[in-house]
Amino acid sequence: MSNLILRDLVKRYGDVEVLHSINLDVAEGEFVVLVGPSGCGKSTTLRMIAGLEEVTDGAVEIGGRVVNNLEPKERNIAMVFQNYAIYPHMSVRRNIGFGLKTAKATKAEKNARIDEVAGILGMTELLERKPAQLSGGQRQRVAIGRAMVRDPAVFLFDEPLSNLDAQLRTQMRLEIKKLHSRVGKMMIFVTHDQVEAMTLADRIVIMRDGHIQQVGTPAEVYHSPANTFVAQFIGAPAMNLLAAEASGDTIRLWNGAEVAVPGVTLADGRKIQLGIRPEDLTEDPGGALEGRITVAEPLGAETLVYVDVGGQEITATASGRNPPKAGDMIRLGLSGTDAHLFDADSGISLRQG
Ligand SMILES: Nc1ncnc2c1ncn2[C@@H]1O[C@H](COP(=O)(O)OP(=O)(O)OP(=O)(O)O)[C@@H](O)[C@H]1O
Ligand SMILES: [Mg+2]
Questions:
Q1: Which of 74, 98, 147, 212 has the least C-beta neighbours within 10 A?
Q2: What is the number of the ligand 1 atom nearest to the C-alpha of 36?
């Protein structure tokens, strides 16, 4: 059994606390993605799990055992970095085999293991090549192979795809997902790309300034964001946030338009932010919001429009077949059932579940 628990994990560099009491419980075989803006503490968290960074306070537990004081190599963990350090003068076989350097096994056993891993990664034909003779994606696979060869209980990935071009990135993302279902090991994957997070994760951990904002499945964080930060971080283009206040059974938007939001009772006059995703804000001749399109981005199936509604910029979706143009007036409708409500000051969601 090897679940991973982070218990009140704290990291300080000198006087500066960069991680504040992180708590997380990852199940065996789970794929968890840590996501958040630059500097929020993703790599630090990963490095503390790996044992590359000292724990200031709290505990890292693997399989029920506190590993705070164990050396990285004693933790049964393998890590793949953004700048996958593969050795240019070594063949693919030796690069992958490097992960077995300290393992107690015969040369034949090691070679058999390298062949097995190369098979899984589809690199059998490439084993005698040098890194310079490989594509970027193949090099990345060598780095993953080196991590796999020791059969670790936990894989840690720190932005392993960020040096790849967009197409290769999508392809490697799929490969990592397949690899996960094949080997069934716990994987903790760091990225600041929310699409990568949504597509790979069983659960997403959204971080900001050394705090966890929300932990949930991709559907949970998308459909029930805990606060405005998560609401705007997950989903592209970002969710619109509109100033509003509660008024009887309805929500009155900043421009005076009223939206009925079923199942919500708030004190009259309570200031809120109403969140609405661009895909839930569509052309509607009787809609509550009217404005002029400042930018129209035809995407084929639909057109993204940026609309100036009384000085507030709103992102919405319009027809792909008859795309509107910049300068056109447009009327947008929204349904209260699609609306997210947040406290105006704290940004915390006012809906449960
Ligand atoms: N060795 C260090 N000494 C002092 N501060 C550090 C050190 N390493 C990291 N930090 C600080 O800790 C915070 C978290 O850094 P971390 O590298 O974990 O961020 P990150 O989420 O991985 O960001 P990125 O997406 O840019 O990789 C940052 O404010 C960073 O400046
Ligand atoms: Mg980082």
A1: 74
A2: 21
- pTM for the whole structure: 0.92
Beta carbons of 200 and 33 less than 8 angstroms apart: yes
Residue 191: phi and psi, rounded to 5, are: -155, 160
CA 205 to ligand 2 center in whole angstroms: 14
- Within the chain, all domains assigned CATH 3.40.50.300 are found at 4-233
Q: List, by residue range, all CATH 2.40.50.140 domains of the chain.
A: 240-343
DSSP 210: T
Determine how β-strand 154-158 pairs with β-strand 186-191.
Answer: parallel
Q: What is the DSSP letter of 28?
A: T
Do 224 and 349 contact (CB within 8 A), yes or no? Answer: yes
DSSP-assigned letters across all residues of 94-108: HHHHGGGTTS---HH
pLDDT at 99: 82
- pLDDT number for residue 352: 53
Q: Is the Cβ–Cβ distance between 78 and 99 less than 8 Å?
A: yes
- Write the CATH number of the domain with boundaries 240-343: 2.40.50.140
* pLDDT beneath 50: ranges in the chain: 353
Q: Which ligand is nearest to the CA of 158?
A: 2
pLDDT of residue 105: 86
Q: Is 191 in the pocket of ligand 1 (CB under 6 A)?
A: no
Task: Give the closest residue to 296 by CA, choosing from 272, 271, 320.
Answer: 320
Assigned CATH for 4-233: 3.40.50.300
pLDDT digits 0-9 by tens, 45-96: 999 999 999 999 999 999 999 999 999 889 989 988 776 678 999 999 999 9
Q: Is 192 in the pocket of ligand 1 (CB under 6 A)?
A: yes
CA distance 148 to 136: 18
| Residue nearest to ligand 1 atom 4, measured at CA | 13
Contacts of 146 (CB under 8 A, 6+ apart): 78, 86, 95, 96, 98, 99
Assess whether the C-beta atom of 54 lies below 6 angstroms from ligand 1.
no
For 208, other C-beta atoms within 10 Å of its C-beta total: 17
